[in-house]
Fold:
Amino acid sequence: MNEQSPHTPSRRKVLRTTAAAAGTGLGIGALGSVTAEAAAAAPAEAPSTAAAAPRRKGATMAGVPFAGRSTVRVGLIGLGNRGGSMIGLYLALPWVRVVAVCDPVREKAERAAAKVVAAGQPAPAVYTHGEDDYENLCARSDVDFVHVATPWDSHFPIARAAMLAGKHVGVECPVAMRLDELWELVDLSEQTRRHCMQLENCCYGRNEMRVLRMAHAGKFGRLLHGAGAYNHDLRALMFSPTYYEGPWRRRWHTQLRGDLYPNHGFGPVANYMDVNRGDRAVSISSFGTPALGLAEYREEHMPPGDPSWKESYIGSDRTISLVQTAKGRVIRLEHDVSTPHPYSRINSLGGTRGVFEDYPERIYLEPDHKDDRWGDFAAYAAEFDHWLWKEHANPPGGHGGMDYIMVYRLMQCMQLGLPPDFDVYDAATWTAPVPLSHASIKANGAPQEIPDFTRGEWRKARSGVDSVKPA
Structure:
């Protein structure tokens, strides 16, 4: 669960920046350190529908390696709960330097800078002068990679600014909130030759990586269906006056009815099925319950006069979506942060030879199991645990170590000059359910086409998270 709570940009500023990004061409003078060849053509206009794929303006980024470097220099933007917890993972890697930090809340930036100094690195540059100061961090010549951990509204303009300044960028979930923004990130990645990645930590969970390797080894037979979710009771946190920097996350429930946070469930299952690497997601049909949970919680816990009483919630308490793939497989996605229930990402995969289900973990495979009795998933650890988990059996950091594994692997790819495990096409695909589930629910569940962000490259098999250990 990627929780982040840096200072929220003003809605006016974010909307102005986003509207300008989506509606104007990109002149060469606006591209900063990007090469003239990459800037030669303006990006295509954003499509009004999923079917209207814009013409490619640059070469594909699928399988494109980073330029290797002995030291990876990182700038972090957004230093609340999420960004503040991630900085220590970068500092744990001897070939990584944190050279700049940014947050409009000065105290958060100063705490982050103090961690860098305490780790024995030079004091980083600190950017705290208003909501636009991230642009100055991105413009630095000594930053190779930008980590974005800000409220959702600002993910797109910051990722855009980073690539236009010649930086690779990783963005916490979701990478953007609109379909035209997703297309622009794809186009910019191809034009600037810079990777834009969804920092999806759940793809690096130990269970997820074990299931991935088992699926690729054929243990599940021919794959048929999978499921993923973000079912996490966040009511107390969304109404807390201190946990998030402002009510930005709760307010999304006043704007969209669909799945606001599909990436944690979609990403791992997409990896199991090689989505964008031999299969692709082609459509989504979504359904939503009434929006009752947040209003009931507010009535029971918030005092009269609290600003939340001015809000009207339309976001479905639970959304259920069905994604169809080009090979006819079905992926079920769920989202529920507004009602009481134990945490679950579901994380299920089924095929012609059996099924895995998580929360709790259990497995049934032929011929290993019989009599309709679940088997022991741990029995497959020795053979099928990913090399990253064998190499880092007790990783530091949050979420059971998956945060560290994600950071380690990304920084390793940058250092050694390898392609990233996932790219801008995955980021766009995993995030597309945000706007498309909203549209489907408004249309009474009518299927919505998921764009082919790869523009046909999905037909080519290529490596992903199930990577080979570097020599």
User: Anything to note?
Assistant: The longest strand covers residues 223-231. DSSP finds 16 helices and 14 strands in the chain. Residues 1-49 have pLDDT under 50 and may be disordered. Residues 3 and 379 are 32 Å apart (CA to CA).
